[in-house]
Amino acid sequence: MTGKRKLRRSFSDDQERLCLGSHLSVSGGSWKAVREAQELGLRSLQIFTKNASRWIQRPIEQKEVHRFREEMEKWGPHPVTSHDSYLINLASPKEELFQKSIDGFSDEIERAELLGLDFLVMHPGAHVGSGVDVAIERIAAGMTECFRRVPHVKTRILLENTAGGGSTMGRSFEELRDLLDAIDTPERTGTCLDTCHMFAAGYELRTESGYQQTMKNLDRTVGARRVFALHLNDSKGDLGSHLDRHMHIGDGLIGRIGFEYIINDDRFGGIPKMLETPKENDMDRKNLALLKRLGKKKVASK
Ligand SMILES: [Zn+2]
Ligand SMILES: [Zn+2]
After folding, report:
1. Which among 4, 151, 288, 298 could bridge 225 via Cys, Cβ 3.0 to 4.6 Å?
2. Residue ranges making up the domain that contains 243
């Protein structure tokens, strides 16, 4: 495994290039999410491997692993990502929460590995007053300890960008780059970019020139080769509002055009692009159908 991925320009079909997916519920067992992914015709999937608002949960049982892998064989091979618990804060200046976060995140890595997942998306954390530079060192130290406890595994850890509300870390591409550089374990890390968070953090996606400027900025800092997944969410908040509120594709302030740019961008061909939008009224199916229409660009010739 290397720290950067190759940018692919040719794919067998649009489905493979778009690699669309969604965050699905694991209630009743993680294998149920894989079954639903098949039913929805997804090409990528995100799940929680434990209750996202609890610290402690029983280990995953062997029979669940077996069931999960069985369903994966019917559906896959498509990339599966887990998302870490909202309680974890590796940036915390409080020693107790920091240690708890190391325990919790090590457990997240182990769970993802047990299921054989490709990626584990994590929120870098919030410094709650200690400052950005201190937080970067803190997160790097915490992550290094997690990597020491769970030696090299298949699952790659992806730091997610944030909308930048409060003291959350990862609000800018520069901050993500500095975090990745400080963690300094490129073979086990990368980033996941959330469109709602990018836009709310102040990155323009709605105009051709604004989009190109944002991507130039990305190329200069993190680099597209360190982006391994995208979260596709429209935004309730305006550009630079720092509001983390997801909307259905085309219903928020990014609008359809922003998604058309991003999903047809060669930089992101073939990487998971997953919805994190509300599920009511069969909305996943509707959002996916819209994204497929927007992703109409012809397959690049070989
Ligand atoms: Zn997230
Ligand atoms: Zn997200």
Report:
1. 4
2. 16-294
Q: Give me ligand 2 centre to Cα 121, in Å.
A: 8
Domain contains 300: no
Between the CA of 83 and the centroid of ligand 1 the distance, in Å, is 7
User: How many angstroms separate the alpha carbon of residue 147 from the centre of ligand 1?
Assistant: 21
Q: 30: domain CATH number?
A: 3.20.20.150
CA of 171 to the centre of ligand 2 (A): 12
Q: What angle do CA 275, 53, 98 make, to 5 degrees?
A: 110
Whether 8 is in a domain gets the answer: no
Cα–Cα distance, 245 to 235 (Å, whole number): 6
Q: Decide if 6 is inside a domain.
A: no
> Distance from the CA of 219 to the center of ligand 1, in angstroms?
22
Structurally, the chain folds into a number of domains equal to 1
Per-residue pLDDT of the chain (302 residues; tens, 9 = 90+): 578 999 988 999 999 999 999 999 999 999 999 999 999 999 999 999 999 999 988 999 999 999 999 999 999 899 999 999 999 999 999 999 999 999 999 999 999 999 999 999 999 999 999 999 999 999 999 999 999 999 978 999 999 999 999 999 999 999 999 999 999 999 999 999 999 999 999 999 999 999 999 999 999 999 999 999 999 999 999 999 999 999 999 999 999 999 999 999 999 999 999 999 999 999 999 999 999 999 986 544 33
Residue 251: how many other CB atoms lie within 10 Å = 15
Neighbours of 184 (CB within 10 A): 11
Q: For residue 167, tell me if it sits in a domain.
A: yes
pTM of the complete model: 0.96
What is the number of the ligand closest to the CA of 231? 2
SS3 192: strand
Residue 179: count other Cβ atoms within 10 Å of its Cβ: 24
Kindly give the distance from the C-alpha atom of residue 160 to the centroid of ligand 2, in angstroms, as a whole number.
7
